[in-house]
Amino acid sequence: MLLKVLLAAALFVSTEAHYYYRYALPMHPHWPRQRDWNRLKERIDGGVVIRGEDEYSVDGMYYNSRTNNPQPAAIATPNTVSEVRCLMRFARRHRMRVSVISTGHHTDMRSTADNSLMIYMKNMKDMSIDHNAKELTVGPGNNFQDVHAFVKAQTNSTFVQLTGADYTVGPFGWALGGGHGMLGRKYGLGADAIRAATIVLASGRVLKINDCRHEELFRAIRGGGGNAFGVLTSLTFQLFPDPGAVHAWWGAYAIGDEVTEKYSAWLASAPDHAGAYWVPSNAGSVVIFASCFGDDCTDVIAELAAIPGCLASNSAFCNSALVFPDYPTYVNAFPQINARGAKQYWMAGATLAEDLDEQLKLVNKWIMTPEDVPVTKACYANGIVGGASKFMDPHGEKTAVAQAMRDSVQAITCALVWNNLTPEQEKDLIATGDVFSETVLKPFSPQGWVYWNEAQHNFPQNDWRERYWGGLDNYLRLRAVKLRYDPWNFLTCHHCVGWQFDEEVDPAVCPESGCSCSNTPRGECATYA
């Protein structure tokens, strides 16, 4: 297999001039004229809004406001697969870059790009259940709250769909990047649960894919990250038995060594039906959100409840667990930590069980070290990986998920959040974040792994290919799929598979009047709002 990948890479080097060309820009001969846009509008029932029209707006669409909001040339909202197919053929005919957005939660704005044809999937909200196969098929316009309600009603609370903790997130971007969640240690990752998909290629061709049809493409979407290979219009997920009552324990503490040591020992030995989130901030406190599924939870929760020093304001929660009747009810009640719309910079890594205490103490030290400018510092240490997922795809033949994600017990993401800083102050602050990432997060992370869904923007060593996918071999295998199914590189974003082809770093992709971090040469944040 590796030989095939290397041959594909060599073929790309020798033939890239034949397959690749620069994206069209306004005033380019291939750029759509008004009559072209008008014809497209007639074919897309969900609507097409062109930049400059009164209805055009990207306000509220993006999670992160760190840079200028990228300005797509047009935002198209398809209702059907045939309309997505029409849009892809339109983009190819006019040599337009394509971006795809569902719920818009990516922290590095990888669902958009300047001068792209943005395909906004919000109207494609079909859902169905095959009760015999115990599978859910879902459209990209749904979020987890929609999914939970549907599955609960259709199965009478006997089955659940794997999801993340934030119910406003959608299953597509989440699962394509790997997909960790509170049931991951018991049932596996979101990518593991994908059983089939419908995908529209850059050529406009529609494929039904699974582990027997277009196997390499199917593997690529299960952890390859983003819509790099085509536009997914449906995903079919395995459903799992409802795990029963959920015992939830939430504790708040002053940041200190004792609580860190006791929590680390608990997570390192926690059973697969339990997990937790460790959330420290530079306000000086850390909050632990733990959950345990099923009947065997008394001792699991008691060990956490025995940690001394619970803050008085939280004492009502520290002494005993809250019990929820089922998983969907728990997720809907789970505290949502949402920084949507703020200026923020994220850094990420993972932790093995034996390194938890040492790394979390270093993270605490960073959290409590003041910066020269007003900034909120927080981390989300997701103690919900490992467990059963560790053994589900040990050789990486079924999914593109890095084994490092499976081997770890914690996926940690830290963030700097600010407002009203000068461009120079922002640049300096981000530089401190990069130092922290390289010296505290990366050294502990197996293979330096970074979660694509909660991605950092800068990689000072330019090792993003190795770190997202657990090594260059896996990346080259994914790139070979990219070359086969999107040789024109229409579907592209910062650090997607295939990023940094020659045309991707060409300055023409980023007009001086509208640069953003996601499309400037080498990913630099060249222009600020």
Task: Describe the 3D structure.
With 529 residues, the protein is α+β, with helices and mostly antiparallel strands. 31% of the residues lie in helices and 19% in strands. The protein contains 17 helices and 18 strands. The protein has helices at residues 2-19, 34-43, 81-93, 144-155, 171-176, 184-187, 190-193, 215-221, 257-269, 298-305, 315-318, 327-333, 356-368, 403-407, 423-441, 464-469, 472-485; strands at 48-50, 74-76, 98-101, 117-120, 127-130, 135-138, 159-160, 194-200, 206-209, 231-238, 240-241, 246-254, 274-280, 285-293, 322-324, 343-351, 376-383, 410-418. The strands form four sheets. It has a seven-stranded antiparallel β-sheet. Strand 13 and strand 14 (285-293) form a beta hairpin. Helix 9 packs antiparallel against helix 13. The radius of gyration is 23 Å and the shape is globular. The model is unreliable at 1-21 and 502-529 (pLDDT under 50).
> What average pLDDT do the residues reach?
87
Total beta strand runs = 18
The radius of gyration over CA amounts to 23 Å
Lateral arrangement of strands in the main beta sheet = 15-12-14-13-17-18-16
Low-confidence parts lasting 5 or more residues at pLDDT below 50? 1-21, 502-529
Largest sheet: 7 strands, antiparallel
Beta fraction: 15-25%
Q: How far from one another are the termini?
A: 46 Å
| Total helical elements | 17
